Amino acid sequence: MTTKTAGIHHITAFVRNPQQTTDFYAGVLGLRLVKKTINFDAPEVYHLYFGDRMGSPGTIITFFPWADSRKGRIGGGQVGITSYVVPADAYEFWRERLTRLGVETQEVERFGERYLQFADPDGLRGEIVAREEGLGSDWAFGGIPADKAIKGFGGAVLFSTAPESTGKLLEDVMGLTRVGEDAGFVRYRAFGDLGNVIEVNAAPMAHGHGGHGTVHHIAMRAADDAEHAIWRHHVAAHGYQPTPIVDRQYFNALYFREEGGILFEIATDPPGFTRDEEPEHLGEQLMLPEWYEKHRDEIEKLLLPFEVRELEERES
Questions:
Q1: What is the pLDDT of residue 311?
Q2: DSSP structural state of residue 48
């Protein structure tokens, strides 16, 4: 086997409020809430997953809403910007939509592409880029037709304290190809067609610190459990220290931190989010792993209620 990842599986961040986060990522960006569960390591905190209709790998942004968390500072050792890709003809649709919904934007250019940048209510940085590649969405919500909807991740911009080391990881371990350098960033590309473009700052960046408004980790894809086991040996053979493989219910995971300070995960594509809910009902109920089910009543009392709302309908 050639050890190469297809690209990003998911990205996970800290926020404060589940309703505020859902209003932005479902109501504004039109993503589907595909799973409502808990942080398995802190069951008093939700773990919310948003993505395409099925929560396909390469589309999944996830959140730990933690009301009492400190304010984070975006900087070295983090994903600095999460990129979302839309159809090639949808850029102006998104510029108009974000403006109409009161989201401030600015346009930048890198590698010959236009990016529409914004921040969510907690200060997490995102951007929209239009590309031909990548399967189109079949999820329409909140005034966003499927042919204009976000397909998934365009990629991510990594803020590294040691960019040469981070680049070496991406090339030598993750199997990405170095494309070139522009506007102070080095671009790498994976072989998949979503979540496949990773950029790293060319000059070292000062450390950020975690808290709401920052990304906790970036997960890259493994095709299945057999490949996942190979990835663990592969990562360790290159001098990193991967964790044991952990069951996250909807994928298996292993984690390691690289020299630029960024926490990486490698996650399996299967089994996916339909293992405990039917496709038409994804994200509707609080789903708990069996070892927490006996504590459901206590857990539910600790979690703030929220709902998925169509913001355009509320405005009209």
A1: 85
A2: E
